[in-house]
Records
---
Amino acid sequence: MASDAEAPLAPLSEQHRIVSAIESYFTRLDDAVADAGAGAAQPEAVGPRCLKAAVEGRLVPTEAELARAEGRSYEPGLGVLTRIPRRTPPPLGGRGASEDDGQGPGAHG
């Protein structure tokens, strides 16, 4: 019987975190609906406002916000990019990098 089945529950602190996240999403949704309502009178302004909100990180939680909420570290993309070694890809045509004179594909006559 289904009533005899047991379902595991997350710890109370995790339940509170989930409820808080859901409430945050509802707040964002309410804000978006209000913005959409304001934009109905000025439809040409909806696109730019939506783009601005996206660029400002107001549509979804940022990775930094998620990391803070989850208690984990976060490294911005620029930090990751500085650690990636820069490599020049081999030129088209399958030649090795040592044969590249820097003039680009087709420059070898």
Note: The CA atoms of residues 40 and 77 lie 36 Å apart.
---
Amino acid sequence: MIGLVFLWLVLSILIGIGASTKGLSGFGWFLLALLLSPLIAGLIVLGLPSRKAPQAKFAYAPRRPCPFCAEPVLVAAKLCPHCRSELPPLVSVRKETRQDLVEPIVASIMGSLF
């Protein structure tokens, strides 16, 4: 008899944990399973959809501030979703490479030798 009560309690706790992982009230579902039945409450929890928001595929998307409202918008955006203003295209800044620095020096040295 004590074994059945212990099993009932453990299954009710597991139902509460399962409900909590789906975004539901874990304590409320634990109490419901404890009073009603862990089997019935477990079937109901399994049938309910998750209330947690779906996670985005990418954790980070590059953003830039809107020049009009200063809210962050995606880099590829052409229209600000906050202030609805048209965003100017991004101007890519070319970084100087070592080759860019060496070529003029080599050209001046070669020009002075020949």
Note: Residues 2-21 form the longest helix (20 residues).
---
Amino acid sequence: MTAFDLDDTLAPSKAPLPDPVREALLALLTVSDVCVISGGQIEQFRTQVVERLGQLPDDLAVRLHLDGVQRLEQCPDVRTALASVPAGPVDLVANYTAFQDARKALARARR
């Protein structure tokens, strides 16, 4: 895996990826997992990285990690999020309230 900090490394602070960096990341994704790390908000990732890379083919999308999160998707609620992942183990990073909501949704789904 190759890891990069976002702001002032891949792009100027809060700016979208420049074209040469975008092309280099797309090429790197064909041969390696790539992790982009930032302390910014999720919307910042969307505008700086995700929107600039565009729709990636699945074989490349699984290699892109944003702060360790694969396949960045925003879901309206916990139930929708849980329904969108394939069967098998799920890693959940959440605050206490969100974790409890997920636990309850899983319990309801098992009934």
Note: The first helix runs from residue 19 to 29.
